[in-house]
Amino acid sequence: MEPVQTGGDAARAVPGNAARSAKLNRDIFHAYDIRGIYGSDFDDQFAREIANKAVTHFGARTVLVARDGRVSSESLERLVITGVNQAGADAISIGLSTTPLFYWSVVTAQADLGIMITASHNPPAYNGFKVIRKDGTLVSGTKLGKVFDEEFVVSNGTGTTMTMETAAQYLDQVMAMAGPDPLNTSISANIPPLMEGHMGALCQQYGITLDRASRWHVHMDPDADRISFYEDGEKIPADCICALLADTLGATTVVHDLRFSRSVLEYWASKGIAAVASRVGRLNMAVNMREVDAQVGGETSGHFYFKPFFYLEAPEAVLLLVLRAMQTSGASLADLTAPYRKYFKSDEVSIPENGKWFQLRQRLKETYKDGKITENDGVTVEFTESDGTLSWWANLRPSNTEPVLRLIVEAKSKDLLQEKVSEIRYLLQ
């Protein structure tokens, strides 16, 4: 990671008020980040000011900056760097980046703060900002809203700007986890443009061929922090992939979100693997993984976390480890994950929230008051048979990124699953 300096001398600056208020819709401050329609929900001045104020609030001397591939991201990156420099901090730009590469780069470059211009999976008109601290912990959008409100704008700093290339070292870390031996396999892949260089390097190193006719398909979301697997057109559940990763790495402690299949949890219990439940979200997962020193973490949405990557995502490592497990066993992905599939589980069902979360939550609790009810993350209701085995359970929680509720149901039989999904959807109308 060789920096190239392009700016002047760094200096700390004196706070001063902004000449005018930045355009701002308060709804852009989300649980994990800042995200909204660029030019409508926020403007150029806001981009410069949020970076400027974050530097001041966290006392950052160096800030690593990255961007996704949106049309607006390049100009927003320049504004962020301007805000960083005017606050007296040095900016390190790694340019176009996946979200996981950005996270890893902040920690390995030992920057005091990281800011990425991205709106994740939102449509092209959107953009936004992710901010992380030097240890890789995420700064919530709620916290950033307070920072924006409470800090002064600093305008007389003279920080420098540098560029840095980090992708090669990141992929070295990925390959160290997966091992050096070739895989010599073919897959079909749907990946964002930001991932093309990474995938090309991995294909060359491991003898992976991209073939649309392959029975194995891999899908990554636009900012490449979620990954999902398909075999013969059937999606392999993310909780089963997490269990496979834990087995492949010999993990003794795993952190999972509260929506994981009871099949997986029972499997881990039978193997003596400590399974720690977490609220959904990168911030919650990373905190819990640190607390229990977990080697692997996973969410049903396709986010997977690794200790060597500072408890953050590395989807390239997920891909290689899954392919390695298939190569070593000679088994299909369905067969490999069969031990983790005892019950029948629905996909995530989205239900319009329409400002009725409190009302619908109470309705669910009242209807199923005879079951076990927990509210660690949304509402979970669970029913067991007379012998203590699972009958069915369901979790309903508000999305942290969209105005919808997310429902997942699992049951001992396919018929019971279909019955309960239909029943709960009707209940929540």
Biggest sheet record: 7 strands, mixed
Report the uncertain regions. Answer: 2-20
SSE class: alpha/beta
Distance between the termini: 54 Å
Main sheet strand line-up = 1-9-5-4-6-7-3
Report the sheet-strand fraction: 25-35%
Instruction: Give Rg in angstroms.
Output: 23 Å
Number of helices: 13
User: Care to count the β-strands?
Assistant: 25
Helix content: 25-40%
> What's the overall geometry?
globular
Q: Overall pLDDT, averaged?
A: 92
List strands and helices in order, with pairings.
Layout: E1 4-5, E2 15-16, E3 34-37, H1 44-58, E4 62-67, H2 73-86, E5 90-96, H3 99-108, E6 113-117, E7 126-133, H4 141-150, E8 153-154, E9 161-163, H5 167-178, E10 185-190, H6 196-206, E11 208-210, E12 216-220, E13 227-231, E14 234-236, H7 238-249, E15 253-257, H8 262-270, E16 274-278, H9 282-292, E17 296-298, E18 304-306, E19 312-313, H10 315-329, H11 333-337, E20 344-345, E21 349-352, H12 357-367, E22 372-374, E23 379-384, E24 390-398, E25 404-411, H13 414-427
Parallel strand pairs: 4-5, 4-6, 5-9, 10-11, 10-12, 15-16, 15-17
Antiparallel strand pairs: 1-9, 2-8, 3-7, 6-7, 12-13, 13-14, 17-18, 18-19, 20-25, 21-25, 22-23, 23-24, 24-25
Helix pairs in contact: 1-2, 5-10, 7-10
